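Researcher: I'm preparing a figure for a lab meeting and need a structural model of a single chain. I don't have an experimental structure, so a prediction will have to do for now. The sequence is pasted below. Please return the structure as tokens so I can convert it later.
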Amino acid sequence: MVYVKLFLAFLKIGAFSFGGGYAMLPLIEQEIVYINNWLSAYEFVDIIAISQMSPGPIAINAATFVGFKHLDVLGAVVATIGVVLVSFLLVTSLAQILLKYYKSPVVNGVFTGLRPAVIGLMAAACVSLFRTSVEDFKSLIICIAVLVIIHKTRTHPILIILLSGIMGIVVYTI
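Model: Understood. Here is the structure written out token by token.
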């Protein structure tokens, strides 16, 4: 029964989230932290951080990590299948139709309406992650430093992650 609940939670996430992993974050957080209480808000942020550092889409990585943490390897498999199943079925069954009618005003209208919604979902995820991750003035400085570095330079994200980890060690342990 627990596996069915895990599968259905991630099936819902995969079915009702458009715009990729970042747009899925508010729904993932709602299901994982608030509805099912599988993770705390802090654990959720940690899972997102780990998902960001791992290769692959963030939603799939998050599902795999949550499933593994909650129910070990089988939980990881169940959650991962749940989050990708609807997208897989839609893409494989609708690809030809979508390509054929991509220029139609109706399809164009749907995508034009979805784009700003996706940005709104991503912004909501940023606000939620900010509230949980920026706990004090030190973490605010790290956040602002990363934002400025990424905005002003072409520094590789892996280097940013490594430097942020080092800054965390220096600021919080020394």
